[in-house]
Design a protein that fits this description.
The chain is an alpha/beta fold and about 475 residues long. It is built from 17 helices and 10 strands. Helix 8 links the parallel strand 2 and strand 3. The relative contact order is 0.08.
Length: about 475
């Protein structure tokens, strides 16, 4: 529902930032509990006045703020969450020990009353114990996400037999799952050897790439660079038009732990890589986009529910069931989903009651003309958004047939599938919409969609939403 594998696609900064907020809350809660239980019973824990009047009130505020600041500095250096005791000391305890003197210094500067006594030591021990318990909980949560394949990256390895074999034999990050691999078909010996040796499906350049990417739900393609540039270019030409992120791994890079910075991006803690073609939609920004989608879709469903029910009633009175028109369309990474709209055209009278023919061949309903003019037929797509299949803003989805057709006309067309398809988009607010576009029209739509994806921000989404409402209310036919 929240596409966690996309949020974690590049690194664990989203999870690490969440843990920092959570640990700061634990520090604040620990001081709150201690301030009450120091002189009162457990039955007074909900008495906020005791906490506010205690000497620990300002301590809890300053300590939490400084702890957040120093924890943000000391967070995981390699951009992956580490569930070991040493990481607990580095990222939880050291920031706390640095925070304490800073907090006391603020008390001294502002001449705030606070006496250090034996109870202060007990409080510090309590905070450390609670942070340890919190860390164990967060470690367990991360392992659970990993073990249930909720945050892993599904990867296709692409390269020579030797380079793929090298990667498969080495220790890898648990975040990576090698789903399949791709080698050239002209080397029959390597192909047969690979199918005997590798424990993952082996494909060649003669395989149908689109079906492979969809079936294995791939999120990344790793092209393994062993200095055979002609081979790298061959594979790039093969996969460049698809929507999956493409990363080039430098297998010849001699990594030296003593000479390289801890902040370097590494694959399997060994190889450097370059993001040849990757989506901007990942991490905390993607999480914010998803939350915005859920909130807006719920609000719109509540506001439009009466109109939705009235539209359904008119469709049923005029032409019976079915009430909805459903098509399979291509979503993020080309994965199929059922795209829902209110039916605005007559059903096929020659077929069964529930069957409907192509929407372009059906006669419009009388009520359907009004529903389409006012865009009320789009309301069911809010359920697609709630299910995590679409977004409020993004490239408009196309039926699979159109994706295949236009990908043969425009090389970059499938790159539109590097994010959620949208209810509205950058192309739509510029007038490039409609169910039967010309090639020239579709090219402009694609260019606007790709511009949006390359320049995406949450503020751009908000602007597009605002412009969409203006267009709907002032020019409903556009």
């Amino acid at each position: 529902m929240f596409r966690l594998e996309k949020i974690f696609q590049k690194d664990d900064y989203f999870f690490i930032n969440i843990t920092i907020f959570f640990k700061c809350f634990v520090v604040l809660l620990s001081i709150y509990i201690f301030s009450i239980l120091e002189s009162n019973s457990i039955f007074d824990l909900l008495n906020y006045d005791i906490y506010k009047s205690s000497k620990y009130f300002y301590l809890s505020l300053y300590l939490s703020i400084f702890y957040f600041f120093f924890s943000s500095i000391f967070k995981e250096m390699n951009k992956r969450y580490i569930a070991i005791f040493l990481s607990f000391l580095l990222n939880d305890i050291i920031p706390l020990l640095i925070t304490l003197p800073f907090t006391l210094y603020i008390f001294f500067i502002f001449k705030l009353d606070f006496n250090i006594d034996i109870n202060t030591s007990y409080l510090l021990i309590l905070i450390m114990c609670n942070l340890f318990i919190t860390r164990k909980f967060l470690d367990g949560l991360y392992r659970n996400l990993m073990n249930n394949n909720l945050i892993q990256r599904n990867i296709m390895l692409v390269g020579s037999f030797e380079s793929i074999e090298k990667i498969l034999k080495e220790k890898k990050d648990k975040i990576n799952i090698y789903k399949c691999c791709l080698i050239k078909s002209d080397n029959s010996n390597s192909l047969e050897k690979a199918r005997m040796s590798f424990k993952i499906p082996v494909f060649t350049d003669e395989s149908e790439m689109r079906i492979i990417l969809e079936y294995h739900e791939l999120g990344q393609i790793w092209i393994l660079d062993n200095e055979k540039k002609d081979l790298i270019n061959f594979f790039l030409d093969l996969v460049i038009k698809f929507s999956v992120d493409i990363i080039i791994i430098n297998l010849k890079d001699n990594f030296d732990n003593n000479s390289r910075s801890l902040f370097d991006n590494l694959i399997n803690n060994k190889y450097t890589f370059s993001n040849y073609q990757t989506s901007k939609f990942y991490g905390f920004n993607l999480f914010n986009k998803i939350i915005l989608d859920k909130i807006l879709s719920i609000v719109l469903l509540i506001l439009l529910f009466p109109i939705f029910i009235i539209s359904i009633i008119f469709i049923y009175i005029e032409d019976g069931f079915p009430l909805f028109y459903t098509e399979q369309k291509a979503g993020w990474d080309g994965r199929r989903f059922n795209h829902h709209k209110l039916r605005t055209k007559k059903k096929n009278t020659l077929g069964t009651v529930k069957s409907i023919i192509n929407k372009n061949e059906m006669m419009p309903l009388k009520s359907g003309k009004i529903i389409r003019k006012l865009h009320f037929d789009e309301i069911p797509q809010l359920f697609n958004i709630l299910k995590g299949e679409m977004s409020i803003v993004g490239p408009r989805p196309h039926v699979l047939k159109d994706d295949i057709t236009y990908s043969n006309v425009f090389k970059n067309f499938l790159k539109r599938n590097k994010t959620f398809p949208g209810l509205t988009g950058w192309a739509q607010i510029h007038g490039y919409r409609g169910s039967k576009p010309t090639n020239a029209h579709m090219k402009k739509r694609m260019e606007y969609d790709l511009w949006y994806m390359n320049n995406w921000s949450l503020w751009l989404d908000i602007y597009i939403i605002f412009r969409t409402f203006i267009i709907v209310f002032t020019s409903p036919n556009k």
